[in-house]
Amino acid sequence: MSHSSIKPDAATASAACLPIEKHFTFNGFTYAAQLWGEDGGLPVIALHGWLDNSGSFARLAPQLKGVQCLALDLSGHGLSDHKIGLDDYSLWSDTAAIYAIADKMGWDQFALIGHSRGAMMSFLSAAAYPKRISHLIMIDAIMPPLVENGGVIERMTRSIEEISHRLERQATHFSSRQEAITARCMSRYAPVTQETAEQLAQRGLSESNHQFYWHADSKLWSLSAVGLSFEMLQSFVKQISDASVPCLLLLGEEGLVKQSPPEFIAQCEQLAKDISARIDYFDDGHFLHMEKSAETVAQTIQRFLFTPDSK
User: Which end of the chain is more exposed for a tag (fewer CB within 10 A), N or C?
Assistant: First the structure.
Protein backbone atom coordinates (compact mmCIF):
# COMPACT_ATOMS: atom_id res chain seq x y z
CA MET A 1 0.00 0.00 0.00
CA SER A 2 1.41 3.41 -0.98
CA HIS A 3 1.64 6.24 1.53
CA SER A 4 -0.79 8.30 -0.53
CA SER A 5 -3.52 5.71 -0.05
CA ILE A 6 -3.30 5.74 3.75
CA LYS A 7 -5.74 8.04 5.47
CA PRO A 8 -4.14 10.52 7.89
CA ASP A 9 -5.94 9.07 10.90
CA ALA A 10 -4.81 5.55 9.99
CA ALA A 11 -1.23 6.70 9.57
CA THR A 12 -1.33 8.38 12.96
CA ALA A 13 -2.74 5.24 14.58
CA SER A 14 -0.02 3.15 12.95
CA ALA A 15 2.72 5.49 14.18
CA ALA A 16 1.32 5.37 17.70
CA CYS A 17 1.97 1.61 17.76
CA LEU A 18 5.67 2.10 16.99
CA PRO A 19 7.73 2.97 20.07
CA ILE A 20 10.71 5.29 20.24
CA GLU A 21 13.84 3.68 21.66
CA LYS A 22 15.21 5.57 24.67
CA HIS A 23 18.36 5.24 26.78
CA PHE A 24 19.16 6.71 30.18
CA THR A 25 22.69 6.52 31.61
CA PHE A 26 23.64 7.06 35.24
CA ASN A 27 27.29 6.80 36.25
CA GLY A 28 28.03 4.46 33.36
CA PHE A 29 24.97 2.23 33.85
CA THR A 30 22.44 2.38 31.01
CA TYR A 31 18.72 1.65 31.11
CA ALA A 32 16.95 1.00 27.82
CA ALA A 33 13.27 1.81 27.35
CA GLN A 34 10.50 2.12 24.78
CA LEU A 35 8.27 5.18 24.58
CA TRP A 36 4.74 5.09 23.17
CA GLY A 37 2.37 8.03 22.70
CA GLU A 38 2.75 11.70 21.96
CA ASP A 39 4.12 14.63 23.93
CA GLY A 40 1.58 16.09 26.32
CA GLY A 41 -0.07 12.78 27.19
CA LEU A 42 -0.49 11.60 30.76
CA PRO A 43 2.98 10.39 31.82
CA VAL A 44 3.19 6.68 32.63
CA ILE A 45 6.19 4.55 33.56
CA ALA A 46 5.64 0.81 33.04
CA LEU A 47 7.65 -1.88 34.82
CA HIS A 48 7.73 -5.46 33.50
CA GLY A 49 7.98 -8.74 35.35
CA TRP A 50 10.79 -11.10 36.29
CA LEU A 51 12.92 -12.23 33.31
CA ASP A 52 10.69 -10.24 30.90
CA ASN A 53 11.38 -6.83 29.32
CA SER A 54 9.63 -3.69 28.08
CA GLY A 55 8.12 -5.71 25.24
CA SER A 56 5.68 -6.88 27.91
CA PHE A 57 3.77 -3.64 27.25
CA ALA A 58 3.92 -3.65 23.44
CA ARG A 59 0.27 -4.68 23.18
CA LEU A 60 -1.08 -2.59 26.06
CA ALA A 61 0.70 0.74 25.61
CA PRO A 62 -0.53 1.59 22.07
CA GLN A 63 -4.13 1.09 23.22
CA LEU A 64 -3.89 3.76 25.92
CA LYS A 65 -5.13 7.05 24.47
CA GLY A 66 -3.95 10.41 25.79
CA VAL A 67 -1.02 8.67 27.46
CA GLN A 68 2.74 8.86 27.01
CA CYS A 69 3.96 5.47 28.22
CA LEU A 70 7.62 4.80 28.93
CA ALA A 71 8.23 1.07 29.42
CA LEU A 72 11.60 0.33 30.99
CA ASP A 73 13.91 -2.60 30.56
CA LEU A 74 14.72 -3.00 34.25
CA SER A 75 18.33 -3.63 35.25
CA GLY A 76 19.53 -7.03 34.11
CA HIS A 77 16.69 -7.38 31.59
CA GLY A 78 16.10 -6.65 27.93
CA LEU A 79 18.62 -4.20 26.49
CA SER A 80 19.55 -2.62 29.83
CA ASP A 81 22.91 -3.23 31.48
CA HIS A 82 23.55 -6.06 33.91
CA LYS A 83 24.76 -5.29 37.41
CA ILE A 84 28.47 -5.65 37.90
CA GLY A 85 30.03 -8.41 39.97
CA LEU A 86 28.10 -9.65 42.99
CA ASP A 87 25.40 -6.97 43.18
CA ASP A 88 21.94 -8.51 43.60
CA TYR A 89 18.53 -7.49 42.28
CA SER A 90 16.23 -6.44 45.10
CA LEU A 91 12.70 -5.17 44.58
CA TRP A 92 13.87 -1.63 45.36
CA SER A 93 17.19 -1.64 43.51
CA ASP A 94 15.70 0.26 40.53
CA THR A 95 13.65 2.77 42.56
CA ALA A 96 16.23 5.56 42.37
CA ALA A 97 16.52 5.05 38.61
CA ILE A 98 12.74 5.20 38.14
CA TYR A 99 12.58 8.67 39.66
CA ALA A 100 15.79 9.80 37.96
CA ILE A 101 14.37 8.72 34.59
CA ALA A 102 11.13 10.56 35.34
CA ASP A 103 13.23 13.66 36.06
CA LYS A 104 15.05 13.29 32.75
CA MET A 105 11.67 13.05 31.02
CA GLY A 106 10.58 16.25 32.77
CA TRP A 107 7.77 14.45 34.62
CA ASP A 108 7.07 15.89 38.06
CA GLN A 109 4.15 13.49 38.46
CA PHE A 110 3.45 10.23 36.65
CA ALA A 111 1.47 7.00 36.85
CA LEU A 112 3.09 3.65 37.54
CA ILE A 113 1.93 0.46 35.81
CA GLY A 114 3.63 -2.73 36.89
CA HIS A 115 3.26 -6.40 36.02
CA SER A 116 4.31 -9.23 38.35
CA ARG A 117 7.70 -8.30 39.89
CA GLY A 118 7.22 -4.89 38.29
CA ALA A 119 3.92 -4.51 40.18
CA MET A 120 5.67 -5.19 43.48
CA MET A 121 8.38 -2.70 42.51
CA SER A 122 5.73 -0.14 41.57
CA PHE A 123 4.07 -0.50 44.98
CA LEU A 124 7.36 -0.08 46.86
CA SER A 125 8.58 2.75 44.62
CA ALA A 126 5.30 4.65 44.93
CA ALA A 127 5.80 4.79 48.69
CA ALA A 128 9.10 6.65 48.31
CA TYR A 129 7.50 9.78 46.80
CA PRO A 130 3.75 9.14 46.79
CA LYS A 131 2.89 12.74 45.90
CA ARG A 132 4.66 12.22 42.58
CA ILE A 133 2.48 9.22 41.69
CA SER A 134 -0.79 10.13 39.97
CA HIS A 135 -2.01 6.51 39.74
CA LEU A 136 -0.71 3.10 40.83
CA ILE A 137 -1.77 0.16 38.65
CA MET A 138 -0.63 -3.37 39.51
CA ILE A 139 -1.14 -6.38 37.24
CA ASP A 140 -1.30 -9.84 38.82
CA ALA A 141 0.89 -8.98 41.82
CA ILE A 142 1.06 -6.51 44.67
CA MET A 143 3.53 -7.86 47.23
CA PRO A 144 6.19 -10.56 47.62
CA PRO A 145 5.93 -13.32 50.20
CA LEU A 146 6.80 -11.78 53.56
CA VAL A 147 9.78 -12.87 55.65
CA GLU A 148 10.06 -13.38 59.39
CA ASN A 149 12.35 -10.97 61.21
CA GLY A 150 14.27 -13.88 62.69
CA GLY A 151 15.35 -15.16 59.27
CA VAL A 152 17.33 -12.11 58.16
CA ILE A 153 20.81 -13.61 58.53
CA GLU A 154 19.81 -16.92 56.97
CA ARG A 155 18.35 -15.11 53.97
CA MET A 156 21.47 -12.98 53.50
CA THR A 157 23.69 -16.07 53.66
CA ARG A 158 21.52 -17.92 51.15
CA SER A 159 21.59 -14.91 48.81
CA ILE A 160 25.40 -14.77 48.88
CA GLU A 161 25.65 -18.47 48.09
CA GLU A 162 23.09 -18.33 45.28
CA ILE A 163 24.74 -15.34 43.60
CA SER A 164 28.17 -17.00 43.72
CA HIS A 165 26.65 -20.16 42.23
CA ARG A 166 24.91 -18.25 39.45
CA LEU A 167 28.12 -16.48 38.40
CA GLU A 168 29.58 -19.86 37.52
CA ARG A 169 26.62 -21.00 35.42
CA GLN A 170 26.16 -20.41 31.72
CA ALA A 171 22.81 -19.56 30.19
CA THR A 172 20.91 -22.46 28.62
CA HIS A 173 21.57 -22.50 24.88
CA PHE A 174 19.13 -23.69 22.23
CA SER A 175 19.87 -24.96 18.73
CA SER A 176 17.18 -22.80 17.13
CA ARG A 177 15.20 -19.67 17.81
CA GLN A 178 11.98 -21.68 17.82
CA GLU A 179 13.38 -24.07 20.43
CA ALA A 180 14.13 -21.10 22.69
CA ILE A 181 10.65 -19.68 22.11
CA THR A 182 9.05 -23.04 22.90
CA ALA A 183 11.03 -23.32 26.13
CA ARG A 184 9.72 -19.92 27.22
CA CYS A 185 6.15 -20.94 26.37
CA MET A 186 6.49 -23.96 28.65
CA SER A 187 8.02 -22.12 31.62
CA ARG A 188 7.13 -23.74 34.96
CA TYR A 189 6.95 -20.29 36.55
CA ALA A 190 4.43 -18.73 34.16
CA PRO A 191 3.76 -20.35 30.77
CA VAL A 192 2.89 -18.01 27.90
CA THR A 193 1.46 -18.18 24.41
CA GLN A 194 3.63 -18.35 21.31
CA GLU A 195 2.74 -14.73 20.49
CA THR A 196 3.75 -13.52 23.96
CA ALA A 197 7.05 -15.40 23.84
CA GLU A 198 7.79 -13.95 20.39
CA GLN A 199 7.16 -10.44 21.72
CA LEU A 200 9.48 -10.95 24.70
CA ALA A 201 12.13 -12.51 22.45
CA GLN A 202 12.57 -9.30 20.47
CA ARG A 203 14.52 -7.78 23.38
CA GLY A 204 15.28 -10.86 25.44
CA LEU A 205 16.80 -13.43 23.08
CA SER A 206 20.38 -13.40 21.75
CA GLU A 207 22.34 -15.50 19.29
CA SER A 208 25.97 -16.60 19.58
CA ASN A 209 27.74 -19.12 17.34
CA HIS A 210 24.39 -20.23 15.89
CA GLN A 211 23.05 -20.89 19.40
CA PHE A 212 20.17 -18.97 21.00
CA TYR A 213 19.81 -17.99 24.65
CA TRP A 214 17.67 -15.77 26.87
CA HIS A 215 20.11 -13.09 27.98
CA ALA A 216 18.59 -11.76 31.24
CA ASP A 217 21.23 -11.66 33.98
CA SER A 218 21.54 -15.09 35.62
CA LYS A 219 21.82 -13.38 39.03
CA LEU A 220 18.10 -12.59 38.74
CA TRP A 221 17.48 -16.20 39.73
CA SER A 222 19.16 -15.54 43.08
CA LEU A 223 17.34 -14.59 46.26
CA SER A 224 17.81 -10.92 47.17
CA ALA A 225 19.74 -10.34 50.40
CA VAL A 226 16.95 -8.42 52.15
CA GLY A 227 13.29 -9.45 52.26
CA LEU A 228 10.17 -7.58 53.30
CA SER A 229 8.69 -8.17 56.75
CA PHE A 230 5.12 -7.42 57.82
CA GLU A 231 6.33 -4.43 59.85
CA MET A 232 8.24 -3.03 56.88
CA LEU A 233 5.21 -3.53 54.64
CA GLN A 234 3.05 -1.39 56.92
CA SER A 235 5.38 1.58 56.43
CA PHE A 236 4.88 1.39 52.66
CA VAL A 237 1.13 1.00 53.09
CA LYS A 238 0.91 4.09 55.29
CA GLN A 239 2.83 6.25 52.83
CA ILE A 240 0.54 5.35 49.93
CA SER A 241 -2.65 5.45 51.98
CA ASP A 242 -1.86 8.82 53.59
CA ALA A 243 -1.20 10.33 50.15
CA SER A 244 -4.50 8.91 48.78
CA VAL A 245 -2.81 7.55 45.67
CA PRO A 246 -5.51 6.06 43.37
CA CYS A 247 -4.71 2.33 43.16
CA LEU A 248 -5.94 -0.46 40.87
CA LEU A 249 -5.13 -4.17 41.14
CA LEU A 250 -5.86 -6.39 38.13
CA LEU A 251 -5.79 -10.14 38.75
CA GLY A 252 -6.05 -13.13 36.44
CA GLU A 253 -8.30 -15.91 37.70
CA GLU A 254 -5.55 -18.32 36.61
CA GLY A 255 -2.72 -15.95 37.50
CA LEU A 256 0.00 -16.28 40.11
CA VAL A 257 -1.86 -14.54 42.93
CA LYS A 258 -5.07 -16.54 42.59
CA GLN A 259 -3.06 -19.78 42.30
CA SER A 260 -1.14 -19.04 45.52
CA PRO A 261 -1.87 -20.53 48.97
CA PRO A 262 -5.03 -19.08 50.60
CA GLU A 263 -3.02 -17.28 53.28
CA PHE A 264 -1.02 -15.34 50.68
CA ILE A 265 -4.16 -14.50 48.67
CA ALA A 266 -5.72 -13.11 51.86
CA GLN A 267 -2.61 -11.01 52.53
CA CYS A 268 -2.72 -9.55 49.01
CA GLU A 269 -6.42 -8.74 49.27
CA GLN A 270 -5.90 -7.13 52.69
CA LEU A 271 -3.03 -5.04 51.36
CA ALA A 272 -5.20 -3.88 48.46
CA LYS A 273 -7.91 -2.93 50.95
CA ASP A 274 -5.42 -1.05 53.14
CA ILE A 275 -4.40 1.20 50.24
CA SER A 276 -8.02 1.50 49.02
CA ALA A 277 -7.19 -0.27 45.77
CA ARG A 278 -9.96 -1.37 43.46
CA ILE A 279 -9.62 -5.03 42.47
CA ASP A 280 -10.76 -6.29 39.05
CA TYR A 281 -10.62 -9.96 38.04
CA PHE A 282 -10.12 -11.32 34.52
CA ASP A 283 -10.64 -14.76 33.01
CA ASP A 284 -6.98 -15.10 32.11
CA GLY A 285 -3.56 -16.13 33.36
CA HIS A 286 -0.53 -14.25 34.65
CA PHE A 287 0.05 -12.31 31.41
CA LEU A 288 -3.48 -10.93 31.18
CA HIS A 289 -2.21 -7.62 29.73
CA MET A 290 -0.60 -9.45 26.79
CA GLU A 291 -2.96 -12.32 26.04
CA LYS A 292 -6.71 -12.88 25.61
CA SER A 293 -7.76 -10.15 28.09
CA ALA A 294 -5.34 -7.53 26.72
CA GLU A 295 -8.00 -5.32 25.14
CA THR A 296 -10.27 -5.42 28.19
CA VAL A 297 -7.31 -4.71 30.48
CA ALA A 298 -6.40 -1.69 28.36
CA GLN A 299 -9.98 -0.39 28.48
CA THR A 300 -10.06 -0.84 32.26
CA ILE A 301 -6.81 1.07 32.71
CA GLN A 302 -7.97 3.78 30.30
CA ARG A 303 -11.12 4.38 32.36
CA PHE A 304 -9.18 4.30 35.61
CA LEU A 305 -6.74 6.94 34.40
CA PHE A 306 -9.30 9.34 32.96
CA THR A 307 -12.67 8.69 34.64
CA PRO A 308 -12.76 10.02 38.23
CA ASP A 309 -15.62 7.80 39.42
CA SER A 310 -13.85 4.63 38.25
CA LYS A 311 -11.23 4.83 41.01
Answer: N
Sorted by where each begins, the domain ranges of the chain are 3-151+227-310
Express each pLDDT in 113-164 by its tens digit.
999 999 999 999 999 999 999 999 999 999 999 887 767 788 889 888 888 8
Query: CA 219, CA 164: separation in Å to the nearest integer?
Result: 9
Nearby residues of 195 by Cβ (< 8 Å), 6 or more positions away: 290, 291
- Give pLDDT, residue 38: 87
Q: Which of 59, 131, 117 lies closest to 286 in space, CA to CA?
A: 117
What's the DSSP call for residue 293?
A: T
The pTM for the full model equals 0.92
CATH class of 3-151+227-310: alpha beta
**Residue 151 is which amino acid?**
G
DSSP 3-state assignment of 234?
helix
